Structure formats: structure tokens, C-alpha cells
Amino acid sequence: MKTLEPHQRQKIQEKVIQFYRHQPWPNRLYQNIKLRICPLIDLEPLFPQEGVILDLGCGQGLFALILHFGSSPRKIIGFDLDEKKIEAAKRLMGNLESLSFFHKNIITDNYPPVEAVALIDVLYLIPYSEHLNLFQKIYECLSPDGVFILKEMDTRPRWKYLWNLVQETLAVKLIGFTLGSHFYFRSQREITQLLTQVGFKTNIIPLDQGYPYPHIAYLATKKP
């Protein structure tokens, strides 16, 4: 796994914080909480340093911004079903030419050809019946040496999974922060099997150390 040196990680984090410094307090609060509870910056070095990256379920664009600050030659395209979040992303980051955001349904809409795809904490909101089709669409839009980074919550250890379930229930069902009404978490084995079925070779990256949440990432590449 490619990793960042502490000073590199700190540099990206400082750039993100600086970017949000003059934004409304809800935006500052969101990015501050997200960076504290989720290892988003640790995912950045897994992506190519240049080329087009598709961020599926991009929300207000926080991860797209991290990718941009990690390597400015990247071009990041964000798709999200929530039109309000897309409009917020455009308002926040409209002056960054390498970032673009579109109101799209990632299940039904087509994807452009890209060098990498990010799906960060989104799969669990998509019905099980759509997972294989989604992975197939991602596989087909990638270049031959492209990479797919899937970040999810694992179902183990059990106490972290249950704690995350409580948090997600508050965020999705009570507060309504994220679109969705049901959860579709899969085990590490199930996700790996689906990725293999589509044609991916997968490396599993545990990311839960130091967090009360079962963070896990899958680095998927096309089999030669």
C-alpha cells in the first residue's frame, strides 16, 4: 500500500482546512468532523498522480478536494444523486478548474472513460441487487491499467460495526444528512467475491486502527 509521509499528510490536511476557513460554519464543521472520524487522506496516495478520476457519490466534494490537493494535475469528476449537495459543491469549489460536479444517478447514468474511480462510503446505501452491476460499470469505464478504490465499513470487528450502525442510523434515518432509507453492508468476503466475479484483482487495506469504526478499503485493478 502506498502511504503518505507524516509531513505530506499534514500538508494536505492544512490545505483542506485553509480552503474551508472562510466557508459557512456548517461546512467547516462537516469537514472537521469527517477528517477526524474517517481516514480520507490516507486514501489519496492510492490514486494515480494524474489523469481523470471519477468520484461516485461525491457529496459536497470533500474527497475530490483532497485528491486535488494531493496532486493538482488530476482532473476529478464528481457524480451524486443529491442535487443540493452537487450545487453546494459547485458553489464551494467552482473556482477550481480541475474539479467538476454533476447531478447523476450512479446506478443508471453512464460513466466517462477514466483512469481511476472512487466509491467512498456509498455502497452501503445501494441495494444489494445493484452491487454487481455497479462494479461492472466501473470495470468497463476504467482504462486497462486503471484502479478502483472502494472504501466501506467492514462487518468486523463486531463492536465497531454495531457502533457505526448506530451512527449511520442517526445520520441517515433521523437527521437525513444522507439520502437513503436502508443499509446494505457486506462482509469483506462478499465484496471481494463480487469484485473477482467482475474481473478485478483486489488488495484489502484495513484502515480501522485508531478509529472506533471498521474502516476498510479495497484496491481493485483489472486482471492482466
Quick rundown:
This protein is of the alpha/beta class and 224 residues long. Helix content is 42%, strand content 23%. It has a single domain, classed as Rossmann fold.
Describe this structure in words.
It contains 8 helices and 7 strands, in the order αααβαβαββαβααββ. The model has no long low-confidence stretch (mean pLDDT 92). With 224 residues, the chain is of the alpha/beta class. The longest helix has 17 residues, at 158-174. Strands 3-2-1-4-5-7-6 form a 7-stranded mixed beta sheet, sandwiched between helices. Helix 6 links the parallel strand 4 and strand 5. It starts with 5 loop residues before the first helix and ends with a strand.
Number of spatially distinct domains: 1
CATH superfamily: Vaccinia Virus protein VP39
CATH-scheme architecture: 3-Layer(aba) Sandwich
Average pLDDT, rounded to a whole number, is 92
Salient structural properties:
seven-stranded mixed sheet; globular; alpha/beta; Rossmann fold; 23% strand; 7 strands
What is the topology?
Layout: H1 6-20, H2 25-37, H3 40-43, E1 51-56, H4 62-70, E2 74-80, H5 83-93, E3 99-103, E4 114-120, H6 128-141, E5 142-153, H7 158-174, H8 188-198, E6 200-206, E7 215-222
Parallel strand pairs: 1-2, 1-4, 2-3, 4-5
Antiparallel strand pairs: 5-7, 6-7
